[in-house]
Specification:
The complex is a heterodimer of chains A (about 350) and B (about 190).
Chain A: H1 3-15, H2 20-26, H3 32-50, H4 55-75, H5 87-99, H6 107-128, H7 138-156, H8 162-166, H9 168-174, H10 195-206, H11 216-221, H12 225-228, H13 237-243, H14 245-272, H15 274-279, H16 281-286, H17 288-293, H18 295-300, H19 302-307, H20 309-314, H21 316-326, H22 329-337, H23 352-355
Helix pairs in contact in A: 1-3, 9-10, 9-14, 10-14, 14-21, 14-22
Chain B: H1 7-17, H2 21-40, H3 46-63, H4 73-91, H5 93-96, H6 98-103, H7 116-132, H8 137-148, H9 153-160, H10 164-189
Helix pairs in contact in B: 1-2, 2-3, 2-4, 3-4, 4-9, 7-10, 8-10, 9-10
The chains are: A mainly alpha (about 350), B mainly alpha (about 190).
Chain lengths: ~350, ~190
């Protein structure tokens, strides 16, 4: 047995509680160095026996531990204190609460969802305002326009009876030059003929403005084109319109159009283009031209005419101011009346050129 | 130290792993003395030893789901304490100023008047702690487990991640260094 083995057996005996003296008696051949090692081991062993925690500490630490565990369990976070929860864990917990079968929604989540929904809806509707036919958002634009029309109709229903009553009287007075046009009155209602002749004047005057709106108008007037076809002969005047009337008409146009347009224009424009007409006040004045000839559509459209009241409402103010100038326009307008229906020009550009010469 | 985990202890561990705080409290009662001793001989103050002991059990609770009963629960606690003491010693300035504290007589057993026997015991512990502080972490852990807890080499091996034969050699070398450190102290005390 070498010294290292003796040392090991001695250490085992010491750990069993034997004294160092008894060990030295059994192993007298131990060197001085080994004795020092054994003494160090004994000191270590005895020191360990005296290193015991106080009962006060044990009780206090036990209480602290139980409180921390209880607090953690209340938080429901298995093994992490609140300050140790990462952002990812919080995000996961947020979505877990949203998607949990119990649907334990947090108020903040509901608010965020509502705001997102409203923001997305507003964004789509706004984007749809610029949509063209065939675009993905165009149906939304039509929906919003229809919704707006319905709302406006609801608001204006009480005022409807007023607009027809007021408008016919002024138009009839101005309708003298348009006597030829009264022949066209294929229009159904008896009250309609009166506005129609008056419309012819505006249509001619509108021509100068046509350069701007022509693109917008076609859509509104398209439905009316079938009925217009028979009346088309006068269309040739359209070609002359940009040339001859332009110098004289520009100043006169504004005043004359205002009064006459209000009653007749309303019916045709209203159904299809409420939103644009509202914004494009001047174009609406030009639009009437097609409407004049389109008596049939007006017959079907009586209800919509009521909705067009807003444009008519806006028109009167110009008439008031334009009253003085109206005197001048009449002379200028008279000659062209022979070739009245220029309004159709935008709708049927092709046929007119050949017929004119 | 028990060679195998008692049946009761297994039950407590299983219950604690399912969130039973009372079962964990029983585990605490069973092992707090050993863990405290292991820590107390290696830190300079009683308060520090108490704080670290409490922290060992808190970390054990947080990680108890990861405990596997293949090895004794106490050894698992020792492993936690071992890492905690080492990390604490590295960052805590108190550990570095240990010698200065002991020179002024400020030890963790200084709490009020004590009989002569206690004074001698305190001196013994103080010298031991000073001498142990000069050893490596592995040597300190080995000696404290061998002579405080009567652990076998096989039990200590997984904690220090060394083979039992290597631990035997390590113990001999550590005791030799400790004896050399304690010799002048004993002469001075005499």
């Amino acid at each position: 047995m070498n010294e290292n083995d003796i040392l090991e057996s001695c250490l085992e005996v010491l750990k069993q509680g034997a004294s160092l003296a008894s060990c030295m008696k059994n192993y007298s051949e131990l060197s001085n160095e080994s004795l020092q090692i054994l003494r160090a081991a004994v000191r270590l062993h005895t020191a360990g026996e005296h290193l015991t925690p106080t009962s006060d500490f044990k009780h206090r630490a036990r209480g602290n531990l139980m409180r921390r565990i209880a607090a953690e369990q209340r938080r429901g976070m298995a093994a992490a204190p609140a300050w140790d929860i990462s952002l990812r864990q919080r995000w996961q917990a947020f979505w877990a609460s949203l998607l949990s079968p119990k649907m334990q929604w947090q108020p903040s989540a509901a608010i965020i969802a509502l705001v997102l929904f409203l923001a997305l809806g507003a964004g789509v509707v706004t984007a749809a305002q610029k949509a063209e036919p065939g675009d993905l958002l165009y149906p939304i634009r039509r929906l919003t326009a229809q919704a707006g029309a319905v709302l406006r109709r609801d608001e204006e229903t009480p005022s409807i009876p007023k607009t027809p009553a007021v408008t016919p009287t002024p138009t009839l007075q101005h309708g003298q030059p348009a006597a030829t046009i009264s022949a066209t009155p294929q229009t159904p209602a008896g009250s309609v003929p009166s506005p129609i002749p008056t419309l012819e004047q505006p249509t001619r005057t509108i021509v100068p403005n046509t350069p701007v709106p022509p693109t917008a108008l076609p859509t509104a007037t398209l439905p009316a084109t079938p009925t217009l076809a028979p009346i088309v002969p006068p269309l040739p005047t359209r070609t002359s319109m940009p040339g001859s009337p332009s110098p004289t008409s520009p100043p006169t146009i504004a005043p004359t159009l205002a009064p006459t347009m209000s009653p007749t224009t309303a019916p045709t424009i209203a159904p299809t283009r409420l939103p644009p007409t509202a914004t494009i006040a001047p174009p609406t004045a030009t639009a009437p031209s097609p409407t004049v000839t389109i008596a049939p559509p007006t017959a079907t459209a009586p209800p919509p005419t009521a909705t067009i009241a807003p444009p008519t409402a806006t028109a009167p103010p110009p008439t008031a101011t334009a009253a003085p100038p109206t005197a001048t326009p009449r002379p200028t307008m008279a000659p062209p009346t022979a070739t009245p229906v220029p309004t159709i020009a935008p709708t049927q550009p092709a046929p007119t050129p050949p017929s004119w010469p | 130290m028990p060679d195998t985990v008692a049946v009761d202890e297994r039950t407590w561990i299983s219950q604690a792993q399912q969130g039973d705080a009372r079962a964990f409290a029983r585990l605490y009662d069973e092992h707090v003395d050993a863990i405290y001793r292991y820590i107390a001989i290696r830190v300079p103050s009683q308060q520090h030893a108490e704080d670290l002991t409490e922290e060992v059990f808190w970390r054990a609770w947080k990680a108890i789901e990861r405990y596997r009963p293949e090895r004794p629960f106490r050894h698992w606690l020792y492993r936690i304490a071992h890492n905690l003491v080492i990390n604490d010693a590295r960052r805590d300035a108190r550990h570095r100023s240990y010698e200065m504290m002991t020179e002024t007589g400020q030890t963790f057993l200084d709490d009020g008047p004590s009989p002569d026997e206690d004074i001698l015991r305190q001196e013994n512990i103080q010298q031991l702690r000073q001498a142990l502080a000069t050893l490596s972490d592995d040597e300190q852990t080995l000696l404290t487990m061998r002579f405080f807890e009567n652990a076998t080499y096989e039990e200590i091996a997984p904690i220090l991640q060394k083979k039992p034969g290597a631990l035997r050699v390590l113990q001999h070398r550590a005791l030799k260094k400790l004896a050399i450190k304690l010799a002048p102290m004993r002469k001075a005390a005499a």
